[in-house]
Structures are given as structure tokens and as C-alpha cells.
Amino acid sequence: MTASQTRVRAVRLGPRSVAALVLVSAVGVVAFCWPFLAPPASQLSAHAEDAPWLFAGLLVLLVAVVAATISESGLGPKAVAMVGVLAATGAALRPIGAGTAGIEPMFFLMVLSGRVLGPGFGFVLGSVTMFASALLTGGVGPWMPFQMLAMGWFTMGAGLLPGQVRLRGRGELLLLAVYGFLAAFAYGTVMNLAGWPFMGALTSNIAFDPQAAVPANLARFVAYCLATSLGWDLGRAICTVVLTLALGPALLRALRRATRRAAFETAVTFDAPPA
Fold first, then answer.
1. 271 secondary structure, DSSP code
2. What's the CA gap between 2 and 65, in Å, rounded?
3. Of the four listed, 160, 247, 252, 268, which is most buried by Cβ atoms within 10 Å?
4. From CA 51, how far away is CA 35, in angstroms rounded?
5. In whole angstroms, what is the distance from residue 235 CA to residue 38 CA?
6. Are 104 and 233 in contact (CB under 8 A)?
7. pLDDT tens digits, residue range 46-102?
């Protein structure tokens, strides 16, 4: 294997980082899916309108813990600088096309960045980008921690795709385009789960009903997704695919060149001043 084929990761995930990611992901799954996990007679269902707020607060703490744990595992100054540049770029891209058929260019940047820089870097980048974007656009609310976690998953997933070393060219672009298309729908679906319980059961026949059985609520949720977000998610998915195929080759080369030059795995040292 040549040096150009060696995969350089901005962050090497250690056992503690992996354990933290698994923990926050497990709690995140519960936070998103609790309407289908809590029985109608449970106290959680009785406080359906309060539960998203409680989970939002918990997710903020857990995402912060994961970011800190990954930082301890090797998120050095070079990687921090790269996170800052890419997160600022992603946050600036997100408002472009906002409110227009789901056109959100930041998603393709997250896919390509996660692919090149690895899953650990990808989770931190996705979370930080969504946080910065929320501050930039004024989109701060109980949904923000869910967005941070979902985007962290989205970007981390790109770093876990196979063929990181040997797959290049059209095959890699096709893989990233397919992933971006499916993940864009997945992101929209999990974010629907975060907002759906806020709807009062009496407001609509597609709202979450704390007293209904799981099959009935699942049918309501599917109807909710079809009625409210299918077109938006499709626009996001198509935009991600088009930008990945059109700009992917140039951006992948730029990211890989920057990664090689940054030499993330080389420790930063400072020479002592001359006497």
C-alpha cells in the first residue's frame, strides 16, 4: 500500500470515545423513539408535551460529553482548525435555499467531509455545524439538540462507509450519492420524530396520541411524514445527490490534499526560543 493510499484520520477513536458514541446514540434512539417505546399508561406518555424538553436537555449534556471525550482521544489543534473552517462553511451554506423545496447545500459538504476525515471527526463536525447554524439563523429551541445529534449521525455514517482506501472515482461518488440520498430521508424522518410529539392529539388525526396503541401511532406518524415533510426531504435528497456528483470530485481532492498537508497524526511541537 502506497503512502497516497493510506487513510489518514483527523481523529483516532479510542475505546472511551467509542463507548461514549455508543452511549449517546443509544440514549438518542430512546429520545427520538420514545412515543413507540412508552406504553399508553406510563408516566412518560402522561407528560407527552414535556418529554421532548427533557430529552433535549439530556442530549445537550451527552453530545458535549462525547465531543469532550473525542477531543481527549486526539482532536488536536489542526483538527480543531479544520472543524472550525468546515463548520463555518456548513453553517453559512444552510440558509441558502431555506424555505425552498428542501434545498440545503450543507448536507453534501457533511457527506464528503465525513468520508474523508472519518467517523469521529464527522460526529463532532456534524454536531458543531448544526449548533453554529442554529446560532446563525436564530433556530435555537428544543429541537436543536436533536438536530445536532441527527447531523452527527449523518456525518459519522459517511465516515463508516466501506472502501475508504481503495474505492475512488465514479464508484466512490456513486456510493456517496446513494448514501446522501438515503441519509437525507433518514435525517428528515428522525427529526419528524422529535417534533411530532409536540402536536396535541386533538389538533389532528395525524398527531401523536399518548393514549393510542403503538400500531395506531405508527400509522399516524407515517401519515404525518407523508403530509408534512415528504416533498422537503425529497428536495434535500436530490440536492445532495446533484451537488455530490457535480462538485464531489473537486471537493474530495481538496479535502484529501488538505488532510495530507495537515498531517493530523503528527504531533505539533514548538521549538524553544534561541538563548
1. P
2. 37
3. 252
4. 10
5. 33
6. no
7. 445 555 565 666 666 666 666 666 666 556 677 778 888 898 898 888 877 665 666
Beta carbons within 10 angstroms of residue 36's beta carbon: 13
pLDDT tens per residue, range 5-40: 445 565 667 777 777 788 888 888 888 887 787 666
> Which of these, 59, 60, 67, lies nearest to 17 by C-alpha position?
67
Separation between Cα atoms, residue 228 and residue 61, nearest integer Å:
30
Please give the grid coordinates belonging to residue 166: 481503495
pLDDT digits (tens, 9 = 90+) for 129-185: 988 888 877 667 777 888 888 999 999 999 999 887 788 889 999 999 999 999 999
Query: Based on the number of CB atoms within 10 Å of its own CB, is 264 exposed (0-12), middle (13-18) or buried (19 or more)?
Result: buried
For residue 161, the Cα-to-chain-centroid distance in whole angstroms is: 15
Side chain identity at residue 78, one-letter code: K
